[in-house]
UniProtKB/TrEMBL annotation:
Transmembrane segments: 18-39, 51-76, 97-121, 141-158, 170-196, 216-234
Top-rank lineage group of the source organism: Bacteria
Lineage: Bacteria, Bacillati, Bacillota, Clostridia, Eubacteriales
Species name: Thermoclostridium caenicola
Name by which UniProt lists this protein: ABC-2 type transport system permease protein
Pfam families in UniProt: ABC2_membrane_4
Keyword Transmembrane: yes
Amino acid sequence: MLGRCISAEWMKLRYSHIWAILVALPVISVLIGCANFYMNQGVLTKEWYSLWSQVGLFYGEFFLPILIAICCAYIWRLEHLNKNWNMILAAPVPSAGIFLAKWIVVGVLLILVQAFFVLLYFIGGKTLGLNAGLPQELPGWLLRGWTAGLTISSVQLARSMRIRSFAVPVGMGLCAIFIGLGMYVARLGLFFPHSLLTVGMGVLSQTGLSCGENPVFWLMNILYIGVINTGAIWRMRKHDRVA
């Protein structure tokens, strides 16, 4: 049943314009980051690490959370139109299957975006003449960034499920970016979804996580995903929707 729900979600996205956003935002991030790196090479002397600090800042701190918020709002959009909630809730499909299918599809989209971003990062570095090897931490940054992205996806899907407006959940996600930045500055980055992305991708500090921080990072992501997904599915089962 879950497989059928996932297939249905892919059919909805097949001819949508969401793909343009998935391509555009990583491209913009890398272009801005590479331009900053090029203009400040006298200060940014650590080659690939310095380039990551520039492209990763715009991508991981701003554009990726916005992209996730847009994807989550879009993936619920059809359900909020033309009284489709009545049809979905009357169908012989479990609430868990509906929500988890959307979450899994967003997760797959994030994998594609992460892969596209690191390709752009590599091309940008070579274009700028970087000859050293890529950072050994790069796979960890990408994996932790994807995991934190799944956590943010849970938050945004739960919001977009409850709020009919497309723009309001995206705006709330934008506000959460600045809250997360404040949490990171206050050294509480491991306890808020958006700052987990900042910490995981090393966008503000490329030193990596310590032995004590690493298990906390994974534990907080698991807790957020488990609690939020469970709560959203429970709400779908127990509360009537206003179609």
